[in-house]
Design goal:
Keywords: Actin-binding, ATP-binding, Cytoplasm, Motor protein, Myosin, Nucleotide-binding, Repeat
Strand order of the largest sheet: 1-2
Family: Belongs to the TRAFAC class myosin-kinesin ATPase superfamily. Myosin family.
Distance between the termini: 101 Å
Helix content: 40-55%
Protein name: Unconventional myosin-Ic
Radius of gyration: 26 Å
Number of helices: 11
Subcellular location: Cytoplasm
Order of helices and strands: HHEEHHHHEEEEHHHHEEH
Largest sheet: 2 strands, antiparallel
């Protein structure tokens, strides 16, 4: 004969257990490993849907973080949130990009081995934003000194510059990265960031001369036209009208409601200074950008068996 102990739950404990089960039904599980039907694709998607509906955009698969772009601002990236994830066990708090960031950082410190965070997803999934959140986390939580703060600022300000010259509005995403990026951040023995190295590859250069309908060229062209000071535009021989430039009208989409080219220009101009470009280097860089716009407006005419250029103004600026 076997004796089975009788367990009697109080009303409070029973209510708590029922509440937990109800919450789980509503918001899903925070780790797909805990799914009862873990081999079902439908169950996987349904769990994502439940969490997304409750503004829970992060879910684990073990140590892998799945993120769903909410396409809106969520109050989950404050300094208080950063402190919440700082130095705690990976599964101790709810899934977050900060947990991945902190886990990689602590593994580097304790194991003395290089760490790598791989961000993958389709266009518009939020890869660029995820990389920015990781950098912001390290900028706030890592040890700092005057020199280190300068390095942190440069790492953070590299993003608006990279986006200006490498991102564009596409049919799927208003700020789509048209290039791949590998960012290497170096830390000293105290765990403070002391340098960084960014390698970009596969830049979509064809976008400079042609854009599909509903898409734009790289942000920097529109930023200069819309945000550049009058004196700057005069020196570059540019007009404050994107419709005047052949390389900016192919997609018939000069304006984007979610983008303020004028404001973004100020951010990029400041970022170039923070990164270390002096005024002469910035001027040279903008001369190249303006030259591309002028080159797109060069016109040709054919007479008999030869072709000649008919637009002297563009050639004058290009030569200069």
């Amino acid at each position: 004969m076997k004796y089975r102990p009788l367990v009697v739950a109080s009303d409070g404990v029973r209510a708590m257990m029922e509440s937990a089960l109800t919450a789980r039904d509503r918001v899903g599980v925070q780790d797909f490993v805990l799914l009862e039907n873990y081999t079902s694709e439908a169950a996987f998607i349904e769990n994502l849907r439940k969490r997304f509906k409750e503004n829970l955009i992060y879910t684990y698969i073990g140590s892998v973080l799945v993120s769903v772009n909410p396409y809106k601002d969520l109050e989950i990236y404050t300094k208080n949130h950063m402190e919440r994830y700082r130095g705690v066990n990976f599964y101790e708090v709810s899934p977050h990009i900060y947990a991945v960031s902190d886990n990689a950082y602590r593994s580097m410190r304790t194991e003395r081995k290089d760490q790598c965070i791989l961000i993958s997803g389709e266009s518009g999934a939020g890869k660029t934003e995820a990389s920015k959140k990781i950098l912001q986390y390290y900028a706030v939580t890592c040890p700092a000194s005057e020199h280190v703060q300068t390095i942190k600022d440069r790492l953070l300000q590299s993003n608006p510059v990279l986006e200006a010259f490498g991102n564009a509005k596409t049919l799927r995403n208003d700020n789509s990265s048209r290039f791949g990026k590998y960012m290497d951040i170096q830390f000293d023995f105290k765990g403070a960031p002391v340098g960084g190295h960014i390698i970009n590859y596969l830049l979509e250069k064809s976008r400079v001369v042609h854009q599909n309908h509903g898409e734009r060229n790289f942000h920097i062209f529109y930023q200069i036209i819309e945000g550049g000071e009058e004196d700057l535009l005069r020196r570059l021989g540019l007009e404050r009208n994107t419709q005047q430039y052949q390389y900016l009208v192919k997609g018939n989409c000069p304006k984007v409601s979610s983008i303020s080219d004028r404001s973004d220009w100020k951010v990029v101009r400041k970022a170039l200074t923070v990164i270390g470009f002096n005024d002469d280097e910035v001027e040279e860089l903008l001369n190249i950008i303006a030259s591309v716009l002028h080159l797109g407006n060069v016109q040709y005419s054919e007479e008999e068996s030869y072709t000649h250029i008919t637009s002297d103004i563009q050639i004058k600026y290009l030569a200069r």
